[in-house]
Prior knowledge:
Layout: E1 2-7, H1 15-31, E2 36-41, H2 66-78, E3 81-91, E4 94-102, E5 108-113, E6 136-139, E7 142-146, H3 155-163, E8 168-172, H4 181-192, E9 195-199, E10 202-205, E11 208-211, E12 215-217, E13 223-226, E14 233-238, H5 241-250, H6 253-256, H7 263-266, H8 269-282
Parallel strand pairs: 1-2, 2-3, 7-8, 8-9
Antiparallel strand pairs: 1-14, 3-4, 4-5, 6-7, 9-12, 10-11, 12-13
Helix pairs in contact: 1-2
Amino acid sequence: MRVSFAQMNSRSGDRQYNLDRAAELIGDASGRGADLVVLPEFFNCEYFAQHRDYKYLDYAETLAGTTIETIAAAARHYRTWVVATILTREGPGFYYDTAVLLDRQGRVHGTYRKTHPAAVYSLEKIYFRYGSHFPVFTVEGWRVGILICYDVFFPEVARTLALRGAELLVAPFAAPKHPIWRELHSVRAFENGSFLLVCNKVGREDAWEFAGESLLAGPGGDLRVVASATDDEVAVVEIDRADVETWRRRYPMFRDRRPDLYGAVTAPTEDLTRTRETADADIEPAEVTNT
Length: 291
């Protein structure tokens, strides 16, 4: 399969330009043989979560809205799969950061809702809820899992998708420069023996400067391609399932996992705190010797 990222900058308050630009980049990728094209997170608008103003909830759409309708038309016209991530409105007070997977006919094949809204530098948590499911989709015979931006910082997300059969992980991003950007994605790919395709925003949007450097990491952690840090860019790379098999044989982490030992990973935080307090109380004080 040939996979592609369509790294782009989004203009503030100009949805039509952003949609036209995304469709143009999809056409570019398709013209180079892409089977699957990934757009950045919130490609259809500026990254609004740098601001605190509920007016930005007006950017939310349904799957029948203008954005998905336009990208579906592009997917259909160029006969390619597309991952398009937007703010969706599911009902009054219910908003989600949603990655929409469209097939070659422009039909919605499935969706993934971001499970970890960011609140490190951004204000995502004031705008939308978290999702609770990790679906894995079949695309051109490949098992594909989607995670969005901050989700990648949680190894449990990528591991869950891989355990559910994902051979290719797809990650739309809207991220400024990060000190271990390449290393982070290299490790996520390696520890799961999966390909990881990242598509980031690039350039200035209001006060934020996005870092670009969209990339494809192989299942051995090698970086197959890394995009510009400053410009819109499309890359198309062929991936081979045999690489997944090769690296999972060489480093059989799935064979050697010990899920019976990992209870702390899923235990409620309060329970872990109580466990630590109990453990501390059981420790005998060290004998003090005067010298």
